[in-house]
Amino acid sequence: MLAKRIIPCLDIKDGVTVKGVNFVGLRNVGDPVELAARYAGEGADELVCLDISATLEGRKTFASLVERIAEVIDIPFTVGGGISSAEDAGRLLLSGADKVSVNSAAVKRPELINEIASRYGSQFIVAAIDARQIDGRWTVTTHSGSRPTDRELFSWAREVVDRGAGEILFTSMDNDGTGKGYPCETFAALSDMLPVPVIASGGAGSIRDIADVLTTGKADAALAASIFHYGQISIPQLKTELSLLGIPVRLH
Question: Is 212 one of the catalytic residues?
Answer without folding.
Answer: no
